[in-house]
Specification:
This protein is α+β, with helices and mostly antiparallel strands. It contains 7 helices and 11 strands.
């Protein structure tokens, strides 16, 4: 199916989701633009694995549907951070997991997004990326371990700096709001001494999607 849903956040930020059930040809057909518009992209991904091709086309399909059905090619800067050259004030982040593609889009604000399938993978390596406080909070809870890993991934995409240590440099802090009676998170980036706002959502308890921004 094409565009699955959109979640809107304050400050002109949105998350768009695409559950990929189409093959490559069907995905291209969902982009009703000229051959000239997609020619460069098709050349760039022609040698990629079919799964990767589907992810890339789906990400462009998301952009097409949320940007008033205009086609923009996702490019990357020197740090491999995605960008849309024609839209200088728009920031983009992309993530893929299993059969889902997620795109975060924000105006005049850098964003980082990550999507993870909830599994034992993060739990198995939790001591490699969690500090003592995070380990104490997450314990053996697979869902919490996956959430923390995803938050740190989205923070890394926001920062896009080589050599960041997930355990030491990206610290997830848990807070409690008495006003809403809910837990919420922030990320502290040690090397920059700054905090990031964290938003997250679970999808049918199978996936978690996280968003970081300043």
């Amino acid at each position: 199916m094409p565009l699955q849903k959109i979640i809107y956040f304050p400050d002109d930020i949105l998350l768009a989701f695409w559950e990929i059930s189409e093959n490559i040809e069907q995905l291209w057909n969902l982009l009703p633009v000229s051959e000239a518009a997609t020619h460069t992209l098709k050349q760039e991904i022609a040698s990629f694995h079919p799964k990767r091709q589907r992810e890339i086309i789906a990400a462009h399909g998301l952009l097409y549907y949320i940007l008033n059905k205009k086609f923009y090619r996702i490019q990357h800067n020197e740090q491999q951070k995605p960008l849309i050259k024609e839209l200088n004030d728009m920031h983009i982040s992309v993530s893929h997991t299993d059969s889902c593609v997620v795109v975060a889009l924000a105006k005049n604000r850098v964003v980082g997004v990550d999507a993870e399938q909830i599994s034992e993978q993060a739990w198995r390596v939790r001591e490699r990326f969690m500090n003592e406080a995070e380990l104490q909070w997450a314990g053996n809870d697979i869902k919490k371990c996956t959430l923390l890993w995803s938050i740190k991934e989205s923070a890394y995409k926001w920062q896009q700096r080589q050599g960041l240590n997930f355990k030491k440099d990206i610290q997830v802090q848990l807070h409690y709001s008495h006003l809403t009676a809910q837990e919420y998170y922030t990320v502290y980036l040690e090397k920059d001494a700054l905090y990031l706002t964290v938003k997250y959502t679970f999808d049918n308890l199978s996936f978690v999607y996280t968003l970081c921004y300043k």
